[in-house]
Specification:
Length: about 100
């Protein structure tokens, strides 16, 4: 009878977390003291991506039942300020998904 040798399960990579992102941003912040035009463009693009991510998280929170007051509290602002900040972009993303 042949003996079956079990292979160890492949290690799954650790998911990248928001804490990891903060560390990366802090590291970049220390190295861009004299950023050139290309770096500025890349930083603005990164800012746009980060804002899109935040809007997606806000959308997920809203779908999970969070109120604008809850989101405002998480942002350290009012319900109205949170809705004004994220509402239009959220509506834009939802419309784009509906059109796709």
């Amino acid at each position: 009878m042949q003996k079956t040798i079990r292979q160890p399960a492949a290690k799954q990579p650790k998911p990248f977390t928001v804490a990891d992102l903060r560390r990366v941003i802090r590291g970049v912040a220390r190295s861009v003291g004299e950023a050139d035009g290309d770096q500025l463009t890349e930083l603005i693009q990164a800012d746009d991506l980060l804002h899109d991510l935040i809007v997606a998280v806000v959308g997920n929170q809203r779908k999970s039942g969070a109120t604008w007051a809850d989101i405002g509290a998480a942002c350290g602002t009012t319900r109205q300020a949170a809705q004004m900040r994220f509402g239009p972009k959220l509506a834009e993303q939802e419309a784009a998904l509906g059109a796709a």
